[in-house]
Q: What sequence folds into this?
């Protein structure tokens, strides 16, 4: 018996290596759901909101580099996918989105739940097609998979319900073969001369440097360069190593500011860093990236190099420098860490959010993956979770979407046996609470830590810095531990510093089940950037003075 188009799509995805599909059933997806049932090798993960499905797929792909799949039914189910798919697009995650559609004879009639999905998904997708003939089901599915994989983005397929029920050919041989990988051998003569002539070189790493930690550390020592990193570079190098200054930007460290202010050469490895205001426009720059479009994308690249970071480092031949520029940041780094530890160890008054990150850092597995949501919690996760290499950090780095922590950590947990930890602010937690049900249903052993201050802390801080009075940022207080307990998840409510350590230890010790630690933190703890523009400082101080005078 010949397969249906839906069955061909699912079998093609399964044989290409897809392990699971995140989504919610719906009438236009019934043929696809039945195909998943019959296939038996692809797992269907039933989520509680389609945005959660897209985020779970996006974060699984970020963690693994593999193609992942999510789906939504016609109309609202598909629309709900978009925020998670934009997160995938902007973080270059490889995701295939399958969207149900009304029968082809009804398209254009303004039928119930009829939406022009191809037009709607055109901006978010690197590949966007509707299967209008069952004979093209396998070809378009394979192409969607390959485009997502090769172009590191979202592929979208619209699946009209009647086409999915029609007979469709399947050819095993069509799936054989893989795409070619480009290899680059750039001429590094000018780059090597620039590094040899530099007195204060600085290495700046991003996501493209993942896997190159030993070579980066060796180069740092050889040329005496401090190492700073973008958000996606967190976890590649050892935060406590003398060569490492820390992150740069609003979430950054004072040692990184000091290092970049005096540098005479910037070596950017696998990053097209957006916050160019933290880098002098006059700083001579070598930029290495596999993607030519990333070179000089946001600031001048004096010496652009099209190459992967590992290949660049293995082919670079430079002289060893006697004077080590990284030594000039040691006092600044020691003082910075000392000040951070002082906040982390305060045991009187409200619990500091820094203390939560530091305590989890102390007891987390050395190879844990940490999913960090968006907001003030991002600052605490980057600054106060100082760590050696081996732990992985994943964010909504470019979209900066709130509410990614819970679904994102679920997606990551499906792809690994390693410990998965999530840091989530209370605003974000409330946005994605339904996915706690998904976590419990599939017993994903995620360790969730809620930073609960009953306000949108980062927005409050931004209002103050810009000179506006606090407005619209207070949140109705929620006991997230009780919410999680109602779903059947082991939970802890922490309101005093002396109870924090035991809750963290017990939560992390429960290896085979999800847990929630709901920590009530100080609502007035502001994550001051390591360096502010004068106008920002003035606005911040003015607002504080006004508050004290009222």
A:
């Amino acid at each position: 018996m010949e397969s249906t188009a839906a069955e061909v799509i699912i079998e093609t995805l399964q044989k290409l290596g897809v392990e699971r599909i995140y989504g919610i059933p719906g009438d236009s997806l019934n043929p696809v759901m039945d195909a998943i049932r019959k296939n038996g090798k692809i797992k269907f993960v039933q989520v509680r909101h389609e945005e959660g499905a897209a985020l779970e797929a996006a974060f699984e792909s970020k963690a693994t580099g593999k193609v992942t799949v999510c789906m939504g039914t016609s109309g609202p189910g598909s629309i709900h996918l978009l925020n998670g798919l934009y997160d995938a697009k902007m973080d270059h995650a490889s995701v295939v989105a399958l969207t149900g559609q009304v029968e082809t004879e009804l398209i254009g009639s303004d039928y119930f739940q009829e939406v022009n999905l191809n037009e709607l998904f055109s901006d978010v997708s690197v590949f966007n097609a509707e299967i209008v003939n069952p004979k093209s089901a396998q070809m378009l599915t394979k192409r969607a998979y390959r485009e997502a994989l090769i172009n590191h983005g979202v592929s979208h397929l619209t699946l009209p319900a009647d086409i999915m029920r029609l007979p469709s050919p399947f050819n095993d041989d069509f799936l054989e073969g893989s795409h070619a990988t480009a290899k680059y051998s750039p001429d590094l003569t000018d780059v090597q001369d620039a590094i040899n002539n530099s007195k204060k070189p600085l290495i700046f790493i991003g996501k493209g440097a993942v896997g190159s930690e030993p070579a980066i550390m060796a180069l740092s020592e050889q040329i005496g360069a401090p190492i700073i990193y973008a958000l996606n570079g967190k976890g590649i190098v050892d935060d406590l190593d003398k060569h490492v200054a820390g992150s740069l930007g609003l979430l950054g460290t004072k040692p990184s500011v000091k290092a970049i202010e005096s540098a005479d050469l910037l070596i950017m490895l696998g990053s097209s860093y957006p916050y160019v205001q933290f880098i002098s426009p006059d700083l001579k720059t070598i930029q290495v990236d596999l993607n030519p479009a990333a070179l000089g994308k946001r600031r001048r690249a004096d010496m652009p190099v099209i190459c992967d970071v590992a290949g660049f480092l293995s082919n670079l031949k430079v002289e060893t420098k006697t004077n080590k520029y990284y030594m000039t940041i040691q006092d600044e780094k020691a003082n910075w860490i000392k000040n951070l530890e002082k906040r982390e160890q305060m045991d009187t008054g409200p619990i500091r959010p820094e203390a939560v990150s530091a305590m989890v850092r102390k007891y987390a597995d050395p190879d844990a993956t940490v999913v960090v949501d968006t907001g003030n919690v991002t600052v605490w996760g980057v600054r106060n979770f100082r760590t050696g290499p081996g732990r992985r950090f994943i964010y909504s780095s470019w979209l900066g979407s709130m509410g990614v922590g819970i679904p994102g950590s679920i997606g990551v947990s499906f792809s690994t046996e390693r410990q998965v930890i999530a840091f989530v602010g209370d605003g974000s937690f409330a946005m994605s609470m339904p996915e706690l049900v998904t976590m419990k249903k599939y017993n994903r052993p995620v360790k969730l830590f809620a930073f609960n201050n009953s306000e949108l802390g980062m927005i409050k801080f931004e209002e103050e810095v810009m000179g506006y009075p606090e407005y619209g940022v207070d949140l109705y207080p929620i006991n997230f531990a009780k919410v999680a307990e109602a779903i059947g998840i082991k939970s802890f409510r922490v309101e005093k510093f002396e109870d924090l350590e035991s809750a963290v230890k017990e939560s992390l010790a429960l290896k085979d089940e999800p847990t929630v630690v709901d920590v009530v933190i100080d609502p007035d703890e502001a994550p001051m950037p390591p360096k502010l523009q004068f106008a920002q400082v003035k606005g911040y101080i003015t607002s504080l003075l006004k508050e004290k005078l009222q």
The two ends are 79 Å apart (CA to CA). The chain has three domains: 5-175, 189-329, 345-545. Residues 239 and 387 are 5 Å apart (CA to CA).
